[in-house]
Specification:
- It is a single chain.
- The relative contact order is 0.18.
- The strands form 2 sheets. Strands 1, 2, 3, 4, 6, 7, 8, 9, 10, 11 and 12 form an 11-stranded mixed sheet that branches. Strands 5-13 form a two-stranded antiparallel sheet.
- The chain has helices at 33-44, 58-76, 106-111, 132-142, 222-235, 250-259, 283-295, and strands at residues 4-8, 48-53, 79-84, 121-125, 128-129, 152-159, 170-177, 183-194, 200-202, 205-207, 212-220, 264-270, 275-276.
- By secondary structure, it is of the alpha/beta class.
- The protein has 7 helices and 13 strands.
Length: 309
């Protein structure tokens, strides 16, 4: 039974028109953010990688990372697969609404690789850097997977102050938890700014910078996939009048299951700094961040040279 890392990359490039900025080099030898996530996942113990992409970016994706990672994985005994998110991959009996041009969101993206998931798995975004600790935390949790308890899920909880931008306000999902560090809800909070002393504030009012936030890094089970599939069927009964824009989103569906008492979500705290590439202006900051991590010895310049089969 493999422990799989699922990388959602179907949305890559959609915010940028022609160029695929998230595939731009940020490391000293042309590495992109995904390289570091894959390195950290393999180092933690994950032994299968699945890329979810679109057919129209396949060539650029393989040139930027796919073919190279395939060779690296082969040398490390790690399986690699591709899945394709398709606009018309819909439940039986559901017709594609006329005029719809965009895929159906991150919930549908995960369903694209359902046939490749034979064990517990983690899901991450392609253009986010999560750090080493989060992968170790998720992997260790997933090793206790019990098919009799398919609703025991987890997520990485990042310290709010480690996810803030120097370039403006952000929106973060602040976690509410019970005494067992299980998620009870997520408060979407917009307009969070980094303060001069490294804290956090909304409209000038301080908020707890040590709060844990969700950056959509999940640990899931094969049984959850069945729930996700059924949820996709039910989703189409709720979107009348919004067929062009409605999205089936992974965190929203998990929140619905949580409120219905069908799953538990353990929040696993991680203290690494998160960063990502959303806009072209983010790239210099990301390049500098990786240079500092290499200088500090967190990574080698020859990124995968420290991993052995």
């Amino acid at each position: 039974m493999k422990t799989t890392l699922v990388i959602m990359a179907a949305g890559i490039g959609s915010r940028f028109g022609g160029g695929i900025k998230q595939l731009a080099a940020v490391g000293p030898n042309g590495e992109i953010i995904m390289d570091y996530s894959i390195h950290d996942a393999i180092e933690a113990g994950f032994d299968k990688i699945v890329f979810i992409i679109r057919h129209d970016i396949e060539q650029a994706f393989r040139q930027a990372i796919g073919d190279r990672i395939e060779r690296i994985c082969a040398g490390l005994g790690v399986e690699l697969g591709y899945a394709f998110q398709e606009l018309d991959a819909l439940p039986a009996g559901v017709a594609l609404p006329e005029g719809r041009t965009k895929p159906w969101g991150t919930g549908q993206a995960v369903l694209a690789c359902k046939d490749q998931l034979d064990g517990p798995f983690a899901v991450i975004n392609a253009d986010d850097y999560y750090g080493k600790e989060a992968f170790v935390q998720l992997y260790n949790f997933l090793q206790n997977y019990d098919p009799a308890r398919p609703g025991e899920l987890c997520m990485a909880g990042f310290v709010l102050k480690n996810t803030l931008s120097d370039n403006g306000a952000v929106t973060r999902g602040i976690c509410r938890m019970d005494e067992n560090a299980c998620l009870t809800g997520v408060d979407e909070t917009s307009g969070i700014e980094k303060t001069a002393d490294g804290g956090a504030a909304v409209a000038g009012a301080p908020i707890d910078a040590e709060s844990l936030v969700s950056m959509n890094m999940w640990g899931l089970t094969p049984g959850f996939v069945g729930m996700l599939e059924q949820g996709f069927v039910e989703f189409f009964g709720t979107i009348a009048g919004n067929e062009m824009k409605a999205e089936y989103l992974l965190p929203i569906f998990i929140d619905e299951l949580l409120k219905a008492g069908k799953v538990t979500v353990k929040v696993l705290p991680t203290h690494d700094r998160w960063f990502g590439v959303t806009y072209q202006e983010d790239k210099p900051v990301v390049i500098e961040s990786f240079a500092r991590l290499i200088e500090a010895g967190v990574y080698r310049k020859d990124l995968f040279s420290d991993l052995k089969q």
